[in-house]
Amino acid sequence: MIWDFGYIAVGLVLLVVAGDLLVKGAVALSLRFGIPALIVGLTVVAFGTSAPELMVSVAAVLDHAPTLALGNVVGSNIANILLVLGLPAIISAIRTDEQDMRESFILMIGATVLFMIVAYLGPIRWPQALVLLAGLGLILFRQICEALAHRANRTPDDEITSVDPHTPGWRIALLLLAGLVGLPIGADLLVDGASDIASAMGVSDAVIGLTLVALGTSLPELATSITAATKGRSDVALGNVVGSNIFNLLCIIGVAGMFGAIPVPAQMLHFDFWVMLGASLLLIPFIFRKRAIGRWVGVAFTLIYLVYVVALLIGGRV
């Protein structure tokens, strides 16, 4: 089992590094072709930063562990709200009055409800996957139209401003190659290690996906949010969490569902999906009433997440 944890650690490192290289290469390539930085931020960067979770989910479906893919997405969304927002809020209050997140939040709730309806209708196969991808397409189209209409008030993504638009072609190719090679290798290592641990502990793939894999793939967002909080900019985490949750549900499960059927365990239908929706609804007073997510709220969020994980591990042997 020690080797399996090693595989998971190496897989996570490869996913983070390769995902970063892929984003930088894709952004540089897009800028070389003259695509506006604003559009790059809403499309290339958004997809690129979700690449690790996407590769893990696709690899899980191909390796005959589809419930691990589902657990990864649902668990990541729960961790994003309760942990990725909770821990930084303990360090520095997360302000919600500096940007209007109401429409994005409503879209996130809509994506969550659509995902739950699709899941309740049975195993997620390619027709249901197309429905999720269609929802993602509509949201992206609206975001791009809105961004173009308010171009003067939007600033380029940090990832874009750190990339030289005149990057040499050989360097772009090297970045893309390293990212495209590293991502599937890292995903395979992570999925293999997680599946072996699930078998050894007598825990289902779904539970491992909801806990170990979900937490692992959320580490980059968590590290970024904590770093921002130490610099007094924890507010940047809120927009990232909302956007990430939408992509997780519509893009990752949508793409993974095109590679094979994803069965939905009864436990997830009756418990985990509702925890995900409930965690999302906890943000209502902060989004709509512009209340800061303070230290004690951060403590409460973190404790709720810990209780959830313990409950999973206690009742997760199948």
Order of helices and strands: HHHHHHHHHHHHHHH
What's the overall average pLDDT, rounded?
A: 81
Radius of gyration: 19 Å
The CATH topology comes to: A middle domain of Talin 1
Q: Note the beta-strand portion.
A: under 5%
Main beta sheet strand tally, sense and closure: none
Task: Quickly list its features.
318 residues, mainly alpha, A middle domain of Talin 1, 78% helix, 0% strand, globular
Which helices and strands appear, and what pairs or packs with what?
Elements: H1 2-32, H2 37-42, H3 44-49, H4 51-62, H5 66-82, H6 86-91, H7 102-120, H8 126-149, H9 158-161, H10 169-201, H11 205-230, H12 236-256, H13 266-281, H14 284-288, H15 295-315
Describe the structure.
With 318 residues, the protein is mainly α. The protein has a single domain (38-157, 202-315), classed as Up-down Bundle (A middle domain of Talin 1), CATH 1.20.1420. The chain is 78% helix and 0% strand. The protein has 15 helices and no strands. The chain has helices at 2-32, 37-42, 44-49, 51-62, 66-82, 86-91, 102-120, 126-149, 158-161, 169-201, 205-230, 236-256, 266-281, 284-288, 295-315. The longest helix is centred in the middle third of the chain and has 33 residues, at 169-201. The chain starts with a helix and ends with a helix.
TL;DR of this structure?
By secondary structure, this protein is mainly α. It has 15 helices and no strands. The protein has helices spanning 2-32, 37-42, 44-49, 51-62, 66-82, 86-91, 102-120, 126-149, 158-161, 169-201, 205-230, 236-256, 266-281, 284-288, 295-315.
